[in-house]
Amino acid sequence: MNRDFTLTEEQEQIRELARDFAERELRPRAVEWDEKQAFHSEVMPMLAELGFLGMLLPEEYDGLDLGMLTYLAALEQISWGDASVAITLSVHNSLPTQMILKYGSEEQRRKWLPAMARGELLGAFALSEAGAGSDAASLKARAERDGDGWVVNGEKMWVTNGSAANVLLVMVRTDAPGERRGAHGIGAFIVPTDTPGYEVGKKEDKTGLRSSETVSVAFNDMRLGPEALLGEPDKGLIYALSSLEGGRMGVGAQAVGIAQAALEHAVAYAGEREQFGQPIKDFEGLAFKLADMATRVEASRGLLHKAARAWDGGQAGMKLSSMAKLFCSETAVWVTSQAINIFGGYGFMRDYPVEKLFRDAKVTEIYEGTSEIQRLVIARSLYEERAAKG
Q: Which residues are catalytic?
């Protein structure tokens, strides 16, 4: 692995630690996990021991407090090993833990975050529903007051870690049925997954990321105490959308890891495969393809790191994170597609690694906000900046 001179020595050491772990523990298992759609439970204690489930949390909550750039550099390497493991870590690190850290009471932080940082509890996040994807404010799952607590009913879709998780951050309606308030009538709740009424439904049969659990979750008269409510009862969607900034950068790192893996496989194959008496890398058309792939991967990583540095410097904004997520995810899909073409007919076969990478790459354009949503966010930010300048 080449030295990344944009990182400090400590960041580079952590990146190398993640790369070594990915090469030793993830790559040898990834194909079997994919074929069996088996959750990667055997490596979760190893990741926890290395601190990868608490990288963004402060030391006072048993985290490593390493910052977004360090975290993303490590997450890219985990994704290089297996993208399914990367999204498990990304969801845990950037959504439930960060929402509790930012918006929870000190009592909630003390109760949940140390165990989540140590990897004793795995977190999940539930926002989307069958009829509420990009239009998250239209969700229908609801929480109704019951004394000083709540009763929750409804169903969530596409919940990553939904079956394996110990704690779920869920957004549900808190406004009255006859007085809907759109985005301002939604609360966020911390739900232990062993709560009566919490039911795991169908496990989705996905094209890619097949060892990552994606399930539906139903709430049937699930009773929660007042301590389950995160922050204000009408600001849950606001909390969730602000936390998606970090989540989108996590998906960007996942995408870069996938693209880097595809590039490396393509470079190796092009140097070994011969046609017309010479390695196919010596054909100009294919050499230019490899050059374009490498350039896009490096550009994606640079944009992602810029967004991470802005976050670490307290200058985070949706525009940069959306740009990074958009560019990295579309790069991953394009690079993996080109890798398949370089492998030719073999690239379409499951005996070779690039078809899995292509399957894993596609969803990065969809979850944590589709490419179309990212473009809307970016365009809106441009006009908001123009208006602010007068």
A: 368
